[in-house]
TrEMBL record:
Keywords recorded for this protein, A-Z: Lyase, Magnesium, Metal-binding
Entry's Gene Ontology molecular function annotations: lyase activity
Record bears the keyword Magnesium: yes
Cofactor field: Mg(2+)
Record domain HpcH/HpaI aldolase/citrate lyase: where: 53-277
Domain of life: Bacteria
Protein name listed in UniProt: HpcH/HpaI aldolase/citrate lyase family protein
Signal sequence range: none
Gene3D superfamilies xrefs: Phosphoenolpyruvate-binding domains
Amino acid sequence: MTTKTPRQFFRPLAIGAPEPFRELPLRLERMIHFVPPHLEKVRAKVGDLAPTVDIVLGNLEDAIPVEAKQAARDGFIAMGQAVDFGKTGLWTRVNALNSPWFLDDITAIMGQIGGKLDVVMVPKVEGPWDIHYVDQLLAQFEAKYCLPKPILIHAILETAEGVKNVETIATASPRMHGMSLGPADLAASRAMKTTRVGGGHPEYKVIADPTSDGAPRAVAQQDLWHYTLAKMVDACAAAGIKPFYGPFGDFADEAACEAQFRNAFLLGCAGAWTLHPSQIAIAKRVFSPDPAEVAFAKRILEAMPDGSGAVMIDGKMQDDATWKQAKIIVDLARQVAARDPQLAAHYGM
Ligand SMILES: CC(=O)SCCNC(=O)CCNC(=O)[C@H](O)C(C)(C)COP(=O)(O)OP(=O)(O)OC[C@H]1O[C@@H](n2cnc3c(N)ncnc32)[C@H](O)[C@@H]1OP(=O)(O)O
Ligand SMILES: O=CC(=O)O
Ligand SMILES: [Mg+2]
């Protein structure tokens, strides 16, 4: 595939548009909280909700009824204008590029709250061509409305073709913020035989060989999403952008939601989507590092002030590589501590 030269890659795509970021802004993004903005009752509480989450996202795509598409767009704009989001990110998930609503979504939002918007989440991204189109369009709106900072793009990985092209999507533009796994649409795209929004399936398992005594055979459920999540994490990490787990639809099963989120956290994800207020505490718990892990990581950094050599701590060998792992945990804890005084106390920061 033909790619731009490095200098061209970082050039604004419209005269008067701001320079693309060379590095992503450093932001704590443990949960992307989805708000249905066509519902006045929910919108009215966004001012109280905003300080309790890292990102508020106004959802315009799936889950918004066709007859409420316009109300959702208008509601998101009204909410964006009315609320002071402070340090909380303001995102929107626009309708898909092939839908009758995308162009009006982006035109209205950029014209009215482009200056407050941080990230546009683009669903059903199939390849870099989708990112290039949105990239150019955003640059034109940024120029038209003299916006001082670039708006970032977050892609949802939720089609088989998108998964095939994940690496070229991740590197399509300096505007790329990150990517979320969309297990519901991806399941449909792959013709998986499930009816769930994320999580495991009891029938996706391996079974031990039969034994001569006929004892019950051990069975272990496998993770349906491991392959895709790992592929996405590598593509994002290599491109210097952020991977996220997406939605977990069974609100009543908090333990399964927590397990899904924790697998994503351990594998390298920065956060996950929260679809219901009950999932906010789960995401906060999972995507803020464990205080005991932070304490151990601090001991590694203290034992190896310049990050080199080898030392033993509690019988375990530490070297440059564990120092780097420890630094990731301590840096994240610092970000969390700056936002959450209670966790700051637990971390001793
Ligand atoms: C596969 C995908 O694309 S996933 C992404 C798309 N899906 C979404 O965005 C769904 C977002 N969530 C929602 O729309 C709602 O949670 C629903 C419609 C699924 C369920 O809503 P309800 O039936 O009202 O749930 P429930 O009765 O448990 O809600 C409890 C309270 O939380 C509020 N609430 C529910 N979800 C949210 C939310 N996402 N954000 C803020 N408040 C919410 C309700 O309004 C209700 O408030 P009240 O006590 O003042 O009446
Ligand atoms: O949009 C999310 C999904 O899982 O589909
Ligand atoms: Mg989807």
